[in-house]
C-alpha cells in the first residue's frame, strides 16, 4: 500500500498533544506502518509538539505534516511561538551520572537520534522543524 500523507493543525496545548497522538495512531493503522515505525513517529511528534505546548509562550497552534518520501517519512512541524531553534541546544552528556546532568534536552536528543536531516528554519513568523524518519 502507498503511504498517504498526514496533516493536522491543533491549538498549542497539552490536550492537543494527546489528540495528535490519537490521530497518528489512526493514521499509522490506515497507512499500515509497522509497529516500530508507528512508535517512532508518535515519539518524535510527541516530543516536538509537547515542547511547543509547554515552552513556546504565546504559540496559538502547532501543525504537523507527514509526507512519504523515498524510503522515509518526511516530518515537518510548525508553530507560531517565539523564535526558538531546538537543534541549537548542545547534545546532553548521556555518559554523565544522572545527578550531574542538566534537566531537559533529552526529547530533542531523541529526535536527533531517531531521525535524519533534522533542520530548523524561522520564516514568515513561524518556527519549522523538519526531519526524515527512515522506514527501514
Q: What's this, in brief?
A:
The chain has helices at residues 14-30, 35-55, 106-114; strands at 6-11, 61-69, 72-79, 116-123, 126-134.
What name does CATH use for the topology? Heat Shock Protein 90
Structural class, from helix and strand content? alpha+beta
Distance between the termini: 16 Å
CATH domain class name: Alpha Beta
Number of domains: 1
Tell the overall outline.
globular
Helix share bin: 25-40%
Number of beta strands: 5
Classify the beta-strand content into a percent band.
Answer: 25-35%
Question: Topology as H/E string?
Answer: EHHEEHEE
Written description of the protein model:
The structure is a single chain. This protein has 136 residues and is α+β, with helices and mostly antiparallel strands. The chain has a single domain (6-134), classed as Heat Shock Protein 90 (2-Layer Sandwich), CATH 3.30.565.10. The protein is 35% helix and 29% strand. It has helices spanning 14-30, 35-55, 106-114, and strands spanning 6-11, 61-69, 72-79, 116-123, 126-134. Strands 1-2-3-5-4 form a five-stranded antiparallel beta sheet, covered by helices on one side. A hairpin with a 2-residue loop joins strand 4 (116-123) and strand 5 (126-134). Helix 1 packs antiparallel against helix 2 (35-55) and helix 2 (35-55) runs antiparallel to helix 3. It is globular, with a radius of gyration of 15 Å.
Amino acid at each position: 500500500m502507498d503511504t498517504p500523507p498526514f496533516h493536522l493543525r491543533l491549538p498549542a496545548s497539552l490536550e492537543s498533544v494527546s489528540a495528535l497522538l490519537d490521530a497518528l495512531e489512526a493514521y499509522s493503522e490506515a497507512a499500515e506502518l509497522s509497529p516500530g515505525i508507528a512508535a517512532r513517529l508518535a515519539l518524535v511528534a510527541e516530543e516536538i509538539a509537547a515542547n511547543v505546548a509547554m515552552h513556546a509562550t504565546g504559540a496559538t497552534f502547532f501543525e504537523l505534516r507527514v509526507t512519504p518520501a523515498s524510503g522515509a517519512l518526511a516530518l515537518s512541524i510548525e508553530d507560531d511561538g517565539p523564535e526558538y531553534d531546538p537543534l541549537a541546544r548542545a547534545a546532553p552528556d548521556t555518559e554523565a551520572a544522572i545527578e550531574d546532568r542538566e534537566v531537559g534536552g533529552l526529547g530533542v536528543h531523541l529526535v536527533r537520534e531517531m531521525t535524519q536531516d533534522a533542520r530548523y528554519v524561522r520564516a514568515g513568523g513561524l518556527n519549522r522543524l523538519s526531519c526524515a524518519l527512515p522506514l527501514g
